[in-house]
Amino acid sequence: MSAYFAFARSAFHSQLAYRNEVWANIFGKLVQVFARVAIWQAAYAGVGAIVVDGVSLQQMVTYALLGGAVMGATRPERIIGEIGRSLKTGDVAVWLLKPLSYPLYLFANECGSFGYRLMTQVIPTVAFTALFYGMLPPASLFDGLMFIAFWALSFTLLFLMSALFGLVAFWLMTSFSLDWILGALLQLFSGLLIPFWFFPEPLATIARHLPFAWVVYYPNAVYLGRLSAADVWLHLGLGLAWAALFLAGVLWLWRCASTRITVQGG
């Protein structure tokens, strides 16, 4: 495990070399958050109410800020791109000679990058916008603690989804467009743009049961107290089941990809 910790630490420190990128990313995140909040302010102003379907404008502002925090610290396109580059250069074949796991290396590398983006981009962005717009506290201490658990689950699921999509590149021989496909699915079915309580039926019911819902919607719903304690535990268990399923898929695909590399490489 010390080797994987070293990979995570190396990924964290390597990000420090691009300090100018930090300011550009913070500015980009601020623009995204301001845009999302402005959309909801305009939507509520259009209906002339501060509460729509039991959801207040302040709750939607908080939801928009949290959505940026949950998604902002993980970059699926970088994970998929890393796999694509390793495949293109042939570096991925080197992992067959090492007593290490390539998927675990990717996870350790993303953990280091996650910590860096969390401290330098996400927290400053959320803190600034929260002071500007106001941000509701967790509905309760229980909801606040469970939000952290759901956020950790969100990070794990998003990584596993990205790794799964990235490993498909071994059969396509390119990762081109794979990050676009995953990004489009996340935009629509994670609840990042529109919470599921505003979705029409039966689309809302379908979206709540897809694994993408655990990336943004459920962490935010837990924070805002939209779920009962029983539902929180239920959906945490379902989210863990999705994570286990994706983990099995990633390990199976990597095993198949390893065999493919060995056969083609002689």
UniProtKB/TrEMBL annotation:
Keywords: Membrane, Transmembrane, Transmembrane helix
Cross-referenced Pfam families: ABC2_membrane_6
Keyword Membrane: yes
UniProt xrefs under InterPro entries: ABC-2_transporter-like
Source organism superkingdom: Bacteria
Transmembrane segments: 114-136, 148-173, 180-199, 232-254
Protein name (record): ABC-2 family transporter protein
Organism of provenance: Rhizobium changzhiense
